[in-house]
């Protein structure tokens, strides 16, 4: 069976291997993106700026509805967003955050942290409701390139191409398959099963993801600034309350444009076995939301009780997620590659998960752009280069998120001691050094005009394009590409 979605799809029977010579073409690779999350949509936005054909396949059956939680982006990804012309739109629904207020459960002050990111990185750290960024990226993708109700069941790949099969019986053929389908990726599941059967899967990648924390999250309806002072300020008003020894909770809120508050309630599962078991076994519906959240309604906040914030949130806008974490070693094999949470699930920490997933998209777009000619060997090399360029930086950020989670959400004796030392004794220069470290990797796409460096902090150099070397003007580059394309065509023929 073939799909009706793509005129280039091929019969399954044609994918049983052959003795044909390797397939080589001067056309750019056709990219199949599985998953319309932030990483997949951002990759689509990048590919839309060049001549690489792509399509996005999402399992959701109807209008996409991202969770209404807060998101934070910083200099690690804002230059790339600026490159595609989306930074001004992003700033319309964002607020900068330059201070961070930490309190005890009884509203005693733990610390007030003041960031100096603009002078170091050239960018503010900005906060916004997650659906706003999602909708912005989605709006920039042509509708005909996104296919809903496409649940991936399996895929096959060989030297001729890759074919994906969906639950509706349709199939589609391409040159590269990108797993951007999140922490429980179907692409990764199928790929790892194949590699395990072939005894090629590392032992690390056979482990289950860790589940250390569970979180409720939501975004309120517009609030009255008179009753919620500071909520209408240009800078985000935020507060984090960390529970005492008898209450393994952390609750956080940030103001975003529209006089709204994004809020999270996080529980450390190892210290709340009974409660977490109740959470795990509860059906997930608005009625059970209310039942479970009744446990935390009395918690104090800078705006009264947490119950006041919950009451200002629509029931269907409340979500529950587990904070899982896992760094896989295998990101690519053959024509298949993983990005974002499918490759590395990080604990939430100042936007690290979203930023790293979008950075994946930038580096992968660069490597896809450099493929010339399109063949099995050049594709495998490009995907391996992507993984090699990203892995060490992601590994470092993965470790950082663990420490940040312990500081913010940890309630063991050791974690409380670490939090006290860091928030009260850590000198300012060490805090700035961490800001620099977190934002030193700021990749940009090689096929668009570069955003000039900003701030005083250094930037980790990224691998230059083999097709678009630096210091060449666009006209000369295009002429060289046309000449190289003609030469490659002649060589293939």
From TrEMBL:
Basic and acidic residues compositional bias: what residue ranges?
Answer: 467-477
* Gene Ontology terms for molecular function: FAD binding; monooxygenase activity
Listed A to Z, the keywords are: FAD, Flavoprotein, Oxidoreductase
FAD-binding domain boundaries: 30-200, 318-369
- Please give the residue ranges the record annotates as the region Disordered: 450-493
Recorded hits in Pfam families, A to Z, give: FAD_binding_3 (PF01494)
Task: Give the source's domain of life in one word.
Answer: Eukaryota
Q: Which family does it belong to?
A: Belongs to the paxM FAD-dependent monooxygenase family.
* Name this polypeptide is given: FAD-binding domain-containing protein
**Gene source species:** Linnemannia gamsii
């Amino acid at each position: 069976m073939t799909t009706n979605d793509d005129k280039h799809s091929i019969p399954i029977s044609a994918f049983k291997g052959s003795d044909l010579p390797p397939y080589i073409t001067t056309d750019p690779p056709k990219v199949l993106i599985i998953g319309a999350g932030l990483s997949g949509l951002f990759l689509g936005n990048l590919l839309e700026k060049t001549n690489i054909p792509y399509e996005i396949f999402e399992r959701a059956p109807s209008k996409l509805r991202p969770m209404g939680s807060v998101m934070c982006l910083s200099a690690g990804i804002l230059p790339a967003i600026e490159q595609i012309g989306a930074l001004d739109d992003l700033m319309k629904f964002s607020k900068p955050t330059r201070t961070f207020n930490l309190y005890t459960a009884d509203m005693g002050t733990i610390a007030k942290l003041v960031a100096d990111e603009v002078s170091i990185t050239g960018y503010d750290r900005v906060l916004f409701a997650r659906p706003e960024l999602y909708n912005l990226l989605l709006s920039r993708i042509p509708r005909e390139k996104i296919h809903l109700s496409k649940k991936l069941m399996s895929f096959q790949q060989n030297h001729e191409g890759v074919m994906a099969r969906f639950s509706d019986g349709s199939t589609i053929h391409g040159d590269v398959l990108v797993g951007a389908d999140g922490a429980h990726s179907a692409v990764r599941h199928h790929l790892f099963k194949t590699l395990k059967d072939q005894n090629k899967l590392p032992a690390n990648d056979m482990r289950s993801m860790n589940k250390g924390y569970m979180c409720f999250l939501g975004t309120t309806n517009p609030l009255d600034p008179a009753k919620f002072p500071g909520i209408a300020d240009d800078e985000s008003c935020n507060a984090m309350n960390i529970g005492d020894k008898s209450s393994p909770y952390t609750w956080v809120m940030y103001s975003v444009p529209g006089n709204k508050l994004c809020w999270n309630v996080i529980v450390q599962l190892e210290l709340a076995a009974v409660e977490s078991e109740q959470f795990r076994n509860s059906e997930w519906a608005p009625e059970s939301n209310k039942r479970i959240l009744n446990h935390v309604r009395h918690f104090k906040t800078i705006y009264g009780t947490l119950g006041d914030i919950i009451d200002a949130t629509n029931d269907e806008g409340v979500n529950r997620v587990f904070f899982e974490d896992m760094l896989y070693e295998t990101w690519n094999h053959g024509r298949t590659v993983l990005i974002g949470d499918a490759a590395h699930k990080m604990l939430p920490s100042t936007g690290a998960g979203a930023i790293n997933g979008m950075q994946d998209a930038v580096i992968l777009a660069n490597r896809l752009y450099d493929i010339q000619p399109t063949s099995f060997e050049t594709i495998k090399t490009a995907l391996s280069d992507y993984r090699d360029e990203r892995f060490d930086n992601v590994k470092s950020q993965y470790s950082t998120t663990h420490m940040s989670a312990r500081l913010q959400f940890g309630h063991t004796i050791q974690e409380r001691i670490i939090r006290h030392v860091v928030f009260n004794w850590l000198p300012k220069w060490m805090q700035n050094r961490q800001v620099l470290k977190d934002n030193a990797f700021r990749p940009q796409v090689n096929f668009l005009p570069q955003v000039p460096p900003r701030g005083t902090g250094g930037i980790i150099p990224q691998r230059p394009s083999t097709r678009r070397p630096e210091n060449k003007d666009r006209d000369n580059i295009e002429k060289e590409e046309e000449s190289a394309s003609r030469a490659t065509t002649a060589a293939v023929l």
